[in-house]
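Protein modeling request. Please complete all fields; requests missing the sequence field cannot be processed.
Requester role: graduate student
Desired output: 3D structure, token encoding
Chains: 1
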Amino acid sequence: MQKAKGFKKSKTGTYLSMGTTAFGAIAVTKQIKKARAEHDTLKLVDAVVSAAAIVTGLAILYRELKRLGDDDVLLG
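Delivered output (76 residues):
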């Protein structure tokens, strides 16, 4: 169990989290297209908020990846 907790803070775990978060962008893109086609402002606002959450999540994961990279002497 301890090994699984360490995976989340590893580079591989961070890349995996970034990938799954970015994969959510596909669903949000479809949601935006559907809301625009239906002229549904409330669904469009919901999709835009979801997109902002994805962007924020990716930024946090990128920052964590850079922080993990700072520990590596070779990455500078």
